Amino acid sequence: MEHEDKGKIRRRATLSSCCAAHSLQDGLTDLLYVLLPVLAQSFGLTYAQVGIIRAANRAAMTAFELPSGMLSERIGERIPIAFGLLAAGAGYIALAWADGFTAVVVVLLFAGIGGGFQHTLCSTLVSTVFGNQGRRAALGTYNSFGDVGKLTFAGLFTLSIGAGVAWQDMTLAFGAATMAAGLVTFAVLGRVGAGMAPKPAEGTGGQGLLGGWGIRDRGAFAALCAIVLLDTVVQGGFLTFVAFLMIEKEVPTALGAFAVVLTLAGGAFGKFGCGFLAEKLGAVRSLVLVEIFTALGIVAVLLLPTLPAYFLLPVLGMVLQGSSSVTYGAVGDMIEPQRQARGFAVIYSIATASMILGPMAFGVVGDTYGLTTAMLAMAATILLPLPLCLVMRRAIAAHYA
Predict the structure, then answer these.
(1) Most buried residue, 32, 46, 83, 238, by CB count within 10 Å?
(2) Do 277 and 358 belong together in one domain?
(3) 0.85 exceeded by the pTM?
(4) At a CB cut-off of 8 Å and minimum separation 6, what does 369 contact?
């Protein structure tokens, strides 16, 4: 009984720490959407310079996903997660003293490096600590807290700037809170013994595995990667162009932009709920349902009048973004525990690249054939993972056999 209680405490402490880290890191990353216009006004930045700042931050984060995962195989997740929070927080604190374009690029590049020490590490830690006891639900909970952070940070910043608070004070506050969270996370994980350095015997568990990456089924993992790519391409495309779709329905520009907020809000609930759905129905069945409902939802938003379309957007957001909780939860079925960090690093790197690729690809379709055709192309693309689910089913069935 005492052992079970300690296990519950360890799982709760780990999940709480990782949810907090995800909320803070994603909050800082997406804070740039509302911060960059303010920085552009303060420093007289051009559109090209704004793009460089955003690209530097995102590229640094993406570049360190895989190295941070491989590092955790040697020293555990606890130290890198804490380092990531401290680095990201320090970057935003330093931003308050930036005096021009070059300084902004440097400090946000450093903050981006810190952001690279989170998704892979926290997902691996949650997956490892929970094992087969509620792993998918736990990852769904963790996944949803990223959106909570995005909405909270952007909302607080916008309200504070509107109330006359200096942007430097806000970045100082956000940075200090993130650094404090890094210290608390280090202490909490250490107290429950989570994310510690693996024992030497555990670090050599990759003998006989595919290329030392611990992949149980090459075809199934490739199918999972393809599903994540297709899912995220559609997510990035829809979130980029849904506002333009609403503007075509003759709503004001500001109200058109609100369509993105409604979709993101639904996505936060969807990421949470789809994790539990996958726990009950399994990854494959859940994914099939989510993809079908996403395709139907996109077509419905396209065809419905303006008001019903707005009411449908949060529901569509639930399935559009909730699929990520299902796919991330399946990583544990594909990868040996000692190498899960590498698997998550690959998945998150693909997802980040796809968020860039999606708007570009569907933008070309929209320019060539019109926005309606681009939306229909998204609906068709989201159905492409369905046959790939059959490949995944084989590997998952073999894992639990």
Answers:
(1) 238
(2) yes
(3) no
(4) none
Distance CA 163, CA 241 (A): 30
Residues 239 and 379 in one domain: yes
Range of the domain at 111: 2-194
pLDDT at residue 1, as a whole number: 52
First to last CA, the chain: 29
Residues of the chain with pLDDT under 50: 203-210, 401
Residue 210 φ/ψ, nearest 5 degrees: -60, 110
Element (H, E) at 110: helix 101-115
Please, are residues 86 and 182 in contact by the beta-carbon 8 Å criterion?
yes
* CATH number of the CATH domain containing 103: 1.20.1250.20
222/226 Cα distance (integer angstroms): 6
Give dist(CA 223, CA 113) in Å, integer. Answer: 29
pLDDT digits (tens, 9 = 90+) for 5-54: 778 888 999 999 999 999 999 999 888 877 888 888 899 988 788 888 88
Cβ-proximal residues to 252 (8 Å cutoff; 6+ apart), any chain: none
* DSSP per-residue letters across 48-82: HHHHHHHHHHHHHHHHTHHHHHHHHHHH-SHHHHH
Residue 80 CB burial class (10 angstroms; 0-12, 13-18, ≥19): buried
DSSP single-letter state for residue 96: T
Residue 182 lies in a domain: yes
User: How distant, in Å, are the alpha carbons of 15, 68, 187, 224, 349 from that of 229?
Assistant: 26, 21, 36, 9, 10
Q: What's the DSSP call for residue 210? A: B
Comparing CA positions, the residue from 393, 267, 320, 335 lying closest to residue 73 is 335
- Is residue 35 within 8 Å of residue 161, measured between CB atoms? no
Number of neighbours of residue 380 by Cβ within 10 angstroms: 13
Same domain for 224 and 171 = no
